[in-house]
Amino acid sequence: MFVAFITGITGQDGSYLAEILLEKGYHVYGLVRRSSNFNTQRIDHLFDNKNLFLRYGDLADSANLCMILSEIKNKYNDDLTRLEVYNLGAMSHVKVSFEVPEYTGLVDGIGTLRLLEAIRTNNMINITRFYQASTSELYGKVQQIPQNENTPFYPRSPYGVAKLYGYWITKNYRESYNMYACNGILFNHEGPRRGPTFVTRKITIGLGNICAGKQDKLVLGNLNAKRDWGHARDFCYGMWLMLQADEPDDYVLSTNESHTIKEFVEKSFKLKNFNIKWRGSGLDEVGYDENTGRVLITVSSKYYRPAEVDELLGDSTKARTKLGWSPICSFDELVKEMVDHDS
Predict the structure, then answer these.
(1) Helices marked H in 24-126
(2) Are residues 298 and 325 in the same domain?
(3) Residue 288 pairs with which residues in a beta bridge?
């Protein structure tokens, strides 16, 4: 019997990963943070699956994590061939992490330690494979282009610093306790389930509102930031592949190509017959429709980070070679899927 425990199951990645694992016949446990509003929309379509089990909890609560793992251990006993733990839960918004740095550290950093300790203290190391959701934000002020598993880290946000702790404590437990523990250093991965406060989804939702006459223009931050964007579904399959390898290791997942925010805007708006051109610079730069002259994109300083990350470009050669992983969805296909969803 293969069982999985996913923290952050209600998020973008958690929902795609749950689909993949349920299709493969896993019993899937998911950690859900209690909220006064329903926060399970991304997995509502899975509720009738008899192999899905949701539990309330939080990465800030050690006792809760221990209790859930103990429940899994006692329920399956000797039938539990493998438990795969995917730590996807996090305070995941980089800019917001500057406003809640202590909370970000407690959840994204120490939360990882709490989960590793819950595995250890429940004496489940021998049957558990652990995946830690690391991030390209570890590279921050990049020391080389492209970035691979050997590139020095230089995080530029409380989110990146907290995730750096999570990365190293995962390696430490692997080396100290012989735990099967992997870090997936994932570059930006998007899709129609991405949260609306993230820039790609903000663009496609804003475009849909402009087309519907609900919004006059789209206000963005650093238009020249470059990111390596893939589809979250492809990257979640890569997470699963990491835990199927004979030996635990750390892997970069990326498309190996980067695009600017401007490019994402241009491709999105082109699908709705807007031909975006640019004039001005810095905070005075605007994007306008060449056909009508109408200004559709402006810039605001409130969307800039205190410390910007200008360019992230991954090199996923190791994952492609050792795991046989490669992204399926192209950048153009990703943009179109998101635009179609939000139109």
Answers:
(1) 62-76, 94-97, 101-104, 110-121
(2) no
(3) 277, 295
Q: Do 270 and 250 belong to one domain? A: no
- Annotated active-site residue 137? The verdict is yes
Within a domain: residue 179?
A: yes
Residues 114 and 336: their CA atoms lie apart, in Å, by 39
Reference 137, options 185, 190, 86; nearest CA is 185
Q: Decide if 339 is inside a domain.
A: no
- The catalytic position among 104, 112, 135, 151 is 135
**Which member of 26, 104, 131, 137 is catalytic?**
137
Q: Is 290 a residue of the active site?
A: no
CATH of the domain at 157: 3.40.50.720
- Reply yes or no on whether 159 is catalytic: yes
Q: What is the pLDDT of residue 200?
A: 96
**Closest Cα partner for 69 from 57, 52, 79, 131?**
57
Tokens 């491709």: give the residue. 267
* Domain encompassing residue 298: 199-224+260-303
State yes or no: cis peptide before 146, omega within 30 of 0: yes
Q: List, for residues 239-298, the tens digit of each pLDDT value.
A: 999 999 999 999 999 999 999 999 999 999 999 999 999 999 989 999 999 999 999 999
Provide the CA 165 distance to its chain's centre, in angstroms. Answer: 17
289 in any annotated domain? yes
Strands of the chain, DSSP E? 2-7, 27-32, 52-56, 82-87, 128-135, 180-186, 189-190, 218-220, 226-227, 230-231, 251-253, 259-260, 276-279, 286-289, 295-299
Percent of the chain with pLDDT over 90: 90
What are the backbone dihedrals phi and psi of residue 114, each rounded to the nearest 5 degrees, phi first?
-60, -40
Crossing angle of helices 110-121 and 62-76, in 10° steps, is: 40
Q: Of these residues, 159, 173, 180, 251, which one is catalytic? A: 159
